[in-house]
Amino acid sequence: MNTPDYALEFEKPLRELVMEIESVRLRSTETGEDVSQQVAQIEKKISKLEKEIYASLTPWQRVQIARHAKRPYALDYVAQIFEDFQELHGDRQYSDDRALIGGTAFFEGQAVMIIAHQKGRDTKEKISRNFGMPHPEGYRKALRLMRMAEKFHLPVITFIDTPGAFPGVASEERHVSEAIAVNLREMAMLKTPTISIVVGEGGSGGALGIGVTDKVLMFENSYYSVISPEGCAAILWKDGAAAPKAAEALKLGAPHLFSQGIIDEVIEEPVGGAHNDPLATGLALKASLHKHLAGLVDKTTDDLLDSRYERYRHLGVYEEAGTTKS
Q: Which of 41, 56, 71 is the endpoint of a domain?
């Protein structure tokens, strides 16, 4: 269960119960009273309430969990399930973007290339990493590393966790749209296995810029969408407060995306979210990567490219004149 300081609004009833336990234990410390039975009763209430809350999360509540301040970021997973990560810097054109990192590592003895959005924890790091919103040079660095991986036949593993590419003037001046578009094209033709994992936020082209892969995996409390709920609400309802309504309309959750064939697997999280048990979450990701990577590395290059083409060619379902087409 989240500590009271980091509990989300819909977790308020749980937060109150946790604080009640702390109050009871404090009283026990002061008076020497045996409160074990009372604590056990409250813990039982917490367990029951957790199951009720997290079994019926709304899309907007999942978005809030995806943005949780304690949620594991890409480098947390890299440290846990990869070995000998060596970060590589710069796009060889402008600068090094710390919001989008990359480098070589080993996964179960297999050399791989990792590319990832990375957010910050404290204020200084958040600013340094631009809140996980890459500039054009970030995507050009990613493309440089993908081409390097292709040259040395390394599988590419990307971690998606961004509200979107940075929309500022400087980003537009350096052609962020073009940088993302080139990545979409080049990833579609990359002659090496590719896997992406949506570990938190997957917003707009900023996410897709490293997401055109052979397999797309997604944690159950992440989201993947053409626009953030707030952005959608501002456009359609002229009111950012309509974000919960927008989240529902966007169908941005992992279960819906899996049912539509847009992602290949929903990775389960511990009750309450990945931040409640990062170790178990990392092990679940490791098992999923093991399964999907094994199925890709044995394919010939032609089969890999053909499968990737078919995957993206058949994405999307729409209705026309009362009939469903794909």
A: 56
User: CA 45, CA 61: separation in Å to the nearest integer?
Assistant: 21
Q: State how far the alpha carbon of 136 is from the alpha carbons of 48, 74, 103, 113, in Å.
A: 47, 20, 18, 20
Size of the chain, expressed as the number of residues it contains: 326
Domain boundaries, position 209: 63-316
Q: What is the mean pLDDT of residues 199-211?
A: 95
Identify whether residues 33 and 136 lie together within a single domain: no
Do 39 and 157 fall into the same domain?
Answer: no
Q: How many CB atoms lie within 10 A of CB 39?
A: 15
**Do residue 152 and residue 238 come from a single domain?**
yes
Is 37 in the same domain as 165? no
60 contacts 79 by C-beta, under 8 angstroms:
no
Judgement on whether residues 197 and 153 belong to the same structural domain of the protein:
yes
What pLDDT was estimated at residue 52? 78
178 lies in the same domain as 48: no
Task: Quickly list DSSP for 56-118.
Answer: T--HHHHHHHHT-TTS--HHHHHHHH-EEEEE----SSS---TTEEEEEEEETTEEEEEEEE-
Which of 91, 97, 169 shows the shortest CA–CA distance to 133? 97
The per-residue pLDDT for 117 is 98
- Give 253-312 pLDDT, tens digit per residue: 999 999 989 999 999 999 889 998 999 999 999 999 999 999 999 999 999 999 999 999
Q: What distance in Å separates the CA atoms of residue 122 and residue 161, rounded to the nearest whole number?
A: 17
Query: What residue spans of 169-277 are helical by DSSP H?
Result: 169-173, 176-188, 204-208, 229-236, 243-250, 254-259
The verdict on 170 and 257 lying in the same domain is yes
